[in-house]
Amino acid sequence: MPRNAPLPVDPIAEAKRQWVAHGWQDAAAGMTLVTSIMRAHQLLLSRIDATLRPFGLSFARYEMLRLLGFTRTGRMPMASAIARLQVHPTSVTNTVERLTRDGLVEREPHPVDGRAAMLVLTDAGRDLVERATAALNTNVFDSPGLPEQDTAEVVRLIARLRKGAGDFTDPRPLPDPL
């Protein structure tokens, strides 16, 4: 949660000092990393939430709409959405139910797999996600809080952490077109 005035001391640096003072120096750097990332997440999410609030969207609902908006036809199988969003299937189901209730997404039977559902972006959903994206670009993404070079370095470092945790693998080279 943002404060009106900066604190006189960095609480994460103080926590690290305490970790070392209590004999946990081997874990102090890791605690500092985790806590710093969690705090950065809070700061960025606060800006995102404030930007999306006028659109009646949470970040989860926005991500689903944006994902569908990126497809050529505004549709994708539910299983593909779950895989790409990297969240629990129940969370995606709840998000889709809310978007469906609000007329932003429709569910249709999968054309091949009778057990699966297709998610389809409605015209209202497409309009909303385009307006919300413009607001996020202006209010958050254009100026995330770091210079461009630092932003690229943070993304690179976090990608290494994510890859090391098994979040993704290097893409295989695509075959040459026939």
Automatic annotation (TrEMBL):
Pfam annotation, one family: MarR_2
Annotated organism of origin: Microbacterium awajiense
Phylogenetic placement of the source organism: Bacteria, Bacillati, Actinomycetota, Actinomycetes, Micrococcales
Stated name of the protein: MarR family transcriptional regulator
Classification via InterPro entries: HTH_MarR-typ (IPR000835), MarR/SlyA-like (IPR039422), WH-like_DNA-bd_sf (IPR036388), WH_DNA-bd_sf (IPR036390)
SMART domains hit by this protein: HTH_MARR
Boundaries of every HTH marR-type domain copy: 30-163
